[in-house]
């Protein structure tokens, strides 16, 4: 399966959530792969704790250079062995492979050339043979990486491969409106998908939303907030729920929500079971990533949202 992670804005939690989702999927026994298609800012290495690729790879053989045909194969980083955080694997039997294909340090967006699409298709087909789940982290907004992904997934060769699209947004007015616009707007994903050769309705069925850094008003009311703040937060939550419905970003298209976690607020990283056991990260956050990883590949939960 190929999953494309998009967002209208930067800072939505797209990369951190995608990385954690993929990490949980590997712990569940799946061979998984992360493609950093955020060509302007390929920082996924930092989340996986890989210092030499925290800003993209400097070897000159990242995904960007691969697509431009400057190298024969894109660099692959085995996260389990390359990460500085040795505790990643502990306590899990039958862990799958977790591989990062980094972007290139210092490269920007790339030219809109048809041969890049063929190159991208070739890569997707090859990775699909090796991994059960490949996540493609697209940069924010409508850009060439998004357009290329839409064109490549419309190609006949990709039709036998299940593909899904996740749109990430924070639980705020601006983010809800922006996420709806990214998908349904005049130059939104649905429109570009259609001009790229997708059937609009089929494509819409492959797309779900993920809310990130969501404050749950209920428990906070009991700890740290005044009664007035709790009531206001509750009302705010209701307004956002209505707004999300109006912008077609509502509950029936929601794959899952990730709660606001203090660890992620301060540092982009994978949440390990150790982080939870030591009391630093919240168990609800870990559970949310685990649930996302399961729902994503489960046809029944995908269809019955
Ligand atoms: N559930 C969360 N709780 C708190 N902070 C979060 C959460 N998810 C993401 N963040 C933080 O938000 C910031 C933006 O996340 P990032 O994944 O880099 O966004 P994007 O890839 O959309 O630009 C990061 O500092 C990240 O750690
Ligand atoms: Mg990112």
UniProtKB/TrEMBL annotation:
GO terms for molecular function: DNA binding. Signal peptide: none annotated. It comes from Actinoplanes couchii. Transmembrane segments: none annotated. This is DNA-binding protein. Keywords: ATP-binding, DNA-binding, Nucleotide-binding.
